[in-house]
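User: I'm putting together notes for a lab meeting next week and I want to include a structural view of one of the chains we've been expressing. I don't have a solved structure, so I'd like a prediction I can at least talk through. The sequence is below, exactly as it appears in our construct file.
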Amino acid sequence: MKNLKEFLIPFAGLKEGKHQFEYQIDNSFFEQFDFDEYQNVDVKVDIELEKKSTIMELCLNHKGIVNVPCDMTGENFDLKIKGKFNLVIKFGEEFNNDSEELLILPHGEFQLDVSQYIYESIVLSVPFKRVHPGIKDGTLKTEALDTLDKLAPKEENKENEDIDPRWENLKKLLTDK
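Assistant: Thanks for the context. Below is the predicted structure for the 177-residue chain, given as structure tokens.
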């Protein structure tokens, strides 16, 4: 993956306090990660970096739409996503990103690459099972759903069948209480 220069935050020149950064993410961002599962991406990412004397705190919020295929029908639809990610940044002898909530940067480092954190937070905010909203409310009409309806097992009307009178007497015991 190429180093995305626009996602490098040079924190060395920033004063102590809160600093805001804003990014608009589209398909070209995911192409850098060789990720092509989403058809169309339109996500706004807001980053707040709070610089303190010895540590920094990064708060990443994203909200937007990704176009994904439905797991049931294969139809593409726009899925609304949103998420939040917090990271504490400390300085130490060597780089260490083993923890999800803590990043240790070497003492001489002067910038932070947030592209990987943006990528992971967007991908993890997409649900594992993606179902088109038209399936839930019954408005989606596709060939796949029509085929599923045709192949679904039909419930037979069992009331018309003759019932053994002994079972009928037992049912009366339950209702006569």
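A couple of points you could mention at the meeting. The mean pLDDT is 85. The CA atoms of residues 16 and 167 lie 82 Å apart.

User: Perfect, that's what I needed.
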